[in-house]
Specification:
alpha+beta; Beta-Lactamase; Arc Repressor Mutant, subunit A; six-stranded antiparallel β-sheet
Length: 278
């Protein structure tokens, strides 16, 4: 993932962050906006899952719309419009976007206490934003904030890296896999490549120093635990997620460590009591 130090790189950063947020959460629509450093006006500059390009360029002043409120308050804001869908997909100038969503979650992305960007997650009519989805999205934003802090520190002070992975090598590998996916036509192979790329992205983000809330699991870990709760074996979960059984085992080890449990049954029970599983 690039270091967002100018407009071009920031656009690339937000494009990847928006797509990754949608992949992680399975949301119908995700967006990202950049906050002007002086006026604090928010401008939508990236979308994933939108039916049109109408959302791009929409602006919101601080405190206006769900995105502007997230900028003004400095924390996430959730709006649920109920069973009647609205034309608002991102809050600002809601009639303009024409995405007809039911619920929107706006999450500020901060550096040194200042809101630089806002990420949005939206669901269309008939599907509210669950507590599990909200938890996964907020964790992702915290990971991105850690990334920004590390990138800023590295750029300003040339301080040694404190990550536990070689992130540049992983980004290069991801690029090679992306090219390979274009050249391959077989769907099962493309699905495996997509799963590997997701693991690489998680490896970069999750290796950074950040403070996770107790019992917080990544979206992929929640996917694995959800299949376990349904009675799937490691092999069955691996087949559904298009990964290897060893990868599922690795996820389960992480889950056991985060939840402080010894086996899969305890993990499912703790996750349900914590509201991570429905």
């Amino acid at each position: 993932m690039p270091e967002p130090r100018d407009d071009t790189v920031a656009d690339e950063f937000l494009t990847k962050a928006t797509a990754r947020l949608r992949d992680r959460t399975g949301a119908a629509l995700t967006l990202a906006g950049q906050v002007h450093p002086r006026t604090r006006t928010l401008t939508i500059c990236s979308v994933a899952g939108a039916r049109t390009d109408a959302c791009l360029g929409i602006t919101a002043a601080p405190g206006r719309g769900i995105g502007g409120r997230a900028v003004a308050l400095g924390h996430h804001v959730l709006d649920d419009y109920g069973d009647t869908p609205t034309n608002a997909s991102s809050g600002p100038r809601r009639a303009t976007c024409r995405e007809r969503v039911r619920a929107v979650l706006a999450m500020p992305l901060r550096l040194d206490g200042r809101v630089l960007y806002v990420l949005y997650l939206a669901e269309r009519a008939g599907k509210p934003i669950s507590a599990t989805t909200t938890s996964s999205a907020l964790l992702y934003v915290r990971q991105l904030e850690s990334f920004l802090a590390q990138a800023s520190l590295k750029h300003q002070t040339d301080a040694p890296r404190r990550w536990n992975v070689d992130e540049h090598a992983l980004v290069q590998i991801d690029g090679e896999l992306a090219q390979l996916s274009v050249e391959i036509t077989r769907r099962p192979v493309k699905a495996r490549i997509a799963a590997i790329r997701a693991l690489l992205a998680d490896s970069v983000l999750e290796a950074m120093p950040h403070h996770e809330a107790e019992h917080t699991l990544t979206r992929r870990e929640l996917d694995v635990l959800g299949l376990v709760a349904q009675g799937c074996s490691n092999a069955e979960a691996a087949q559904r997620l298009a990964v290897s059984p060893e990868t599922v085992k690795a996820y389960l080890r992480n889950i056991h460590g985060k939840l402080g449990v010894r086996n899969r049954t305890e993990a499912v029970n703790v996750a349900r009591r914590s509201g991570l599983l429905q």
